[in-house]
Amino acid sequence: MALEALHQFIQKTLNGKRFFTQLFVELVVQIGCIAILSPLFFCWDYVLRVHRAVMYVINDDYGNIVHNFTGIGQLIYIIVRIFPLLFTLVVISIWVLKRYSSTLLYPFKQYVNARIFEHSDNSFFAELYTRVTITLGVFSAAYFLLTPMLTFGTPPFYDFVVLLSRLLVLFLAIQLGKAIHTHHYSFKLIIDNYFNAKELPYALAIFRIVYACLLLLGLYMPTHELYHWAELGKEDRVALPFIGLWIDIIPISKGLYLFVCQVAIISAFGLMFGFFTRLSGIILTLSLFYIWSVPCFFGKLNHNQVQCWTALILALSNSGRVLSIDSLIRKYIFKQSIDTQPQRAFALPFRMIWLMLGIMYFWSGVHKIWDNGLCWAYSDHFIYQIQEEWIENFNRIPGFRIDHYPTLAKALGMATIYFELLYIFWILSPYTRWMAFFSGLALHQSARYFMNIGFENIQHVYVSYINWNKLLHEKTKTALAHYYRVGSSFAPTVKDKTLIVVISLLLFGNSLCGLFQIHTWPISAYPSYSNLASGTTYVMKFILNEQVDMDSIMKARHFRKENYRQFETEIFKVGANPAQQQQEVLKLWKKYQTSVPELQQYKSIIVFQDSISVNPDFEDHVLGRKLLLSAKVSE
Questions:
Q1: What's the rounded Cα separation, in Å, for the pair 195 and 190?
Q2: I need a surface site. Which of 75, 217, 393, 465 has the fewest CB within 10 A?
Q3: 278 vs 41, which has greater pLDDT?
């Protein structure tokens, strides 16, 4: 009742005021409420820290508060000291914005209203973007203003980062709920338009053809590189969450693996040409599941499940209605007419694919903030993570060294978080969907250039954003008038219900995995890269026959060392048990020999654990070295 009365008081007080003023007052109220409740949100021990910190604020100086308290205590002290200045700056900024924004931003406002928010859902998107942007801006200002008062790398600093991170996630959830509550009718209309939109069959058919072509190109790697995983024995298999039983049931061998690769190629051609389209799609889905499962069962978790999901969606949808051999058979042999009018059944597969990507990005962004918050983007850790990826690719450094431009790198880190949080909302409207398309491609291409991580399997799905109907003949334009028309109700057919049920289960499973960061197969959270990298790292150095550096062989062979990087990390964790560590090193050596047959000629290995800087300018400087294994090995 008290909160409701406070909310009504704010609404009456702000009646007729501008949106930015209302948002500012709401943020102040929310900050006050959460600052009071935040100790209970983290740990009961913080309640005592708050009481002691308040007493020190009254009776002591800053030096004592820094040396005697951590986390919430320092935060409260700093806020008390800095709040008057921060409040004054915000008030002045709002006054300037209120006084001059209409004149300065009028041309930009007209363009945005005409191009982006001309649809009836403009009110919801405008408020959502504004709220998220301002919230991130306020917390960014707090980060840059308050972190210099703490010593970087100390417990007080990380306590502050964790506190700020949790609060930021809570604030963003509040802003999202506020935007939906304020424009609930507009939001409901957006959802109705999203799921009830009609589409011509040509767009789905062209996507089927293009995606199958890209998939055929992507099947080169498992056929020529990944089949070595199938040569490992049962003792090398690693259980994954929820599917440990499958590891012992599914047969794995080199011959079977290559056979399934050939089946996948044949079924991909069947899907591309639309010959027994549904059957080809189902066989392709099962084949892809096996192809990507084999490396996962041996500890190399490949996040390529998007390929399986997309193939399954195409198999369960009517993607072979037109532009397929099946349609020619129905038309010329069975003399059946083909309905090419816009239908919901042709639009629903696209919506499911976009939701699949949206869930993946959203939880990745949430965990970046929840785990480390703005420190992930604004500190040097983001640059360290990029440099560590270079090490995993044998110091394959791009021509443009982004680590030499830390401000640009941090801006890209913040842009990544912003994109991942809003992507799932951009896809809901055709007037903002282009933002999801270009931003997503820009993100993946930037990651590919700077970090050698392209996620090409995800980029292939972006073909679904292309509106192929506008590239077709003039006669189809009359049917496009029904493209965004919303029906009174959604009455799916039996085939549509099958697609909805299966894909909904996949989306639900991926949402849970994303929420709890469960990495398994084929339903899994995608890597969020939310960890804070360090300026130094440990690498495993193999010396063969006492003189040959294994890295030189791997580099010449264009071997992807990052596929085995996680095995090295697990070996380093068991350093307290030297015997177990040596056994794990020998298992890793066996994996290397299986993947790279040239290594089988070497009969002795010396393995070191080197501590090095992630900066490639100091790649030859070994900061520390520890002997892990020196042994004779058989061919």
A1: 9
A2: 217
A3: 278
